[in-house]
Structure formats: structure tokens, C-alpha cells
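Incident log, support desk, overnight shift.

02:14 A customer reports that sequence design results differ from what the structure should imply. Their input is reproduced verbatim below. On-call engineer (initials T.W.) acknowledged and began investigating.
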């Protein structure tokens, strides 16, 4: 099953992610562009995952993490 891509900022961090990244930082603009692209791939991701079983890590989250690693 495909996991949910909802953010839970308080799971492992005591500081909100919005407070860590400055408002005018380029990563904010990049994230908005990436999120638009991932929304367009939503139907494709749904086709790849089974309807039963344990939830997986959402592919959107994995792709965002890989992109962030590439930038740094």
C-alpha cells in the first residue's frame, strides 16, 4: 500500500521546519515546483502500489529526499 504524504513535523524534531528554512531561501521555490510535478504523477504512483498490505514510505517523500541530497 502506498503511504500518505502528510507532514508530521513534530515526530522527530522540536523545531518546526518552517522556522529552520528562511522565507526567501531558494529551496522553498524548488519545493513548490517539485510538489507541482509530484501532484501530476499521483495517478501513476497509485497504479504502482497494491491496495492491501502495510503502508509504504510515500514515493513523493523519497523523491524529495533524493533531490535534496543531490543539491547538497
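02:41 Re-run completed on a clean worker. Output:
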Amino acid at each position: 500500500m502506498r503511504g500518505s504524504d502528510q507532514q508530521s513535523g513534530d515526530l522527530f524534531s522540536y523545531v518546526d521546519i518552517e522556522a529552520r528554512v528562511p522565507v526567501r531561501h531558494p529551496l522553498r521555490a524548488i519545493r513548490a515546483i517539485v510538489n507541482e510535478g509530484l501532484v501530476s504523477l499521483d495517478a501513476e504512483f497509485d497504479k504502482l502500489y497494491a491496495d492491501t498490505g502495510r503502508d509504504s514510505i510515500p514515493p513523493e517523500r523519497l523523491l524529495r529526499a533524493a533531490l535534496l541530497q543531490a543539491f547538497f
